[in-house]
Design a protein that fits this description.
The protein has 137 residues and is of the alpha+beta class. The chain has a single domain (21-136), classed as Alpha-Beta Complex (Ribosomal Protein L22, Chain A). The chain is built from 5 helices and 5 strands, in the order H-E-H-H-H-E-E-E-E-H. Strand 3 (101-106) and strand 4 form a beta hairpin. Helix 3 (46-54) packs antiparallel against helix 4. The chain is flat, with a radius of gyration of 19 Å.
Length: 137
Amino acid sequence: MGVRKRLSAEARKEEQKSVAFARLTNVPTSPRKMRLVADMVRGKEVFRALGILKFSNKEAAARVEKLLRSAIANWEEKNERKAESGELYISTIYVDCAPMLKRMRPAPQGRGYRIRKRANHVTIIVDTIDNAKTTEA
């Protein structure tokens, strides 16, 4: 690896040390369905988002709820204190496509229909509300 790449990689790693995030990979749900759940909680305060996810009737909401709890725990570990109500919010949440499993289903008259089993990766970044206000001002 060249010097320039190594320096930029080290700078990225240092930046990641101050950010509390959680990542869920290879979730066997289509990204489109997961994005509906991600849109419900984007930008919300974390405890309000947990309530929204708990009472949502979507199957993907349970996975995002568990991931959000993990992100909160990561923030608490980095800052060495408990998160208080109204302190944290979901600054970023995004859903990326994962590798697709491609299968064949037998069809009439010797044909085969393609089945694409989609999966996704979800990333949640939580931040304090005062940091958001200072960056906007």
